[in-house]
Sequence to fold (329 residues):
Amino acid sequence: MSSPCSIAGLGLHLPRTAVPNTELERFVDTTDEWIRTRTGITSRYFSQPDEPCSVLAHQAACKALANAGVSPGDLTHIIVGTCSGDYNIPSTSCLVQDMLGLKGIPSFDLAAACSGFIYALETARALTFLHPQARILVIGSEVVTSRVNFEDRSTCVLFGDGAGAAVVTGAAHPGPVRVLDVMLKADGSVGNLLTIHGGGSACRPVLGGTIGPEYFVQMNGRDVFKHAVRCMAEISESLLQRNGLRTDDIDLIIPHQANIRIIEAISKKLGVSMDNVYVNVDRIGNTSAASIPIALAEAVANGRIRSGMKVLLSAFGGGFTWASALLQF
Fold:
């Protein structure tokens, strides 16, 4: 299912405030040892009030544009994958468009939770078929901590904030990374296992009312774990099979950085060594839709990914949604 779509540049941006587990101990009923043994996370980044989702997205976008060697004026579309945008209206993508000094180009947000970047990548891939001249800015940006209940120690220790971006191009502007194939899946029947209900039209805010726990991430961790491992492993295998490949043909797997237990379970289910699996959840935590592009940009920057390598991306998020992408460097 190969396409003429490619990635011309990558970039990432993290908030300025690193929050180690020892800092969380000051205001959450937890310990560094408890967090590390259950999640593998030692630190994450928290956005400050002057670092909303759009600001993180803009910073990552500027780095991706510089990496691609193109200017904002060369862009034809902007897509932002997020579940923690600045506002309901305007969209984060429109805010980023304005920050880049642009007007007129189509810009929209895409909500697929932690699968958001790969969903946005597939949307961009479809647009490049229609518009071979396209240069599309695809961003995964999250301030998940704005929707974290710090009285729920089982979930609040998992999440961090950040953004990653890619400049995706059509056949007229081939980049160094080919997007070989993408596969998307979803199952709304189990969506109640991972939610942020508050603020939606089915869970309306009331002027002067109380903000309850329904306004924050609520998760059935045990069931989410089972679904995440099974779904990410199965979609990865399906995508490889569709392209006549096996896991042995993949040089590096970048899974959604949910927690180390999920990552290790996926590695085991796919029968691949952890040496071939990229991990940064220990330093960055779970950044939802930003997780995959941050890890991808970081792996390229630090030399873990080199020319000639095949890289497999896999993500899972609320909805449920899950996705996988195959890249040729």
About this structure: The chain has a mean pLDDT of 97. Residues 179-328 form a domain with the Peroxisomal Thiolase; Chain A, domain 1 fold (CATH 3.40.47.10).
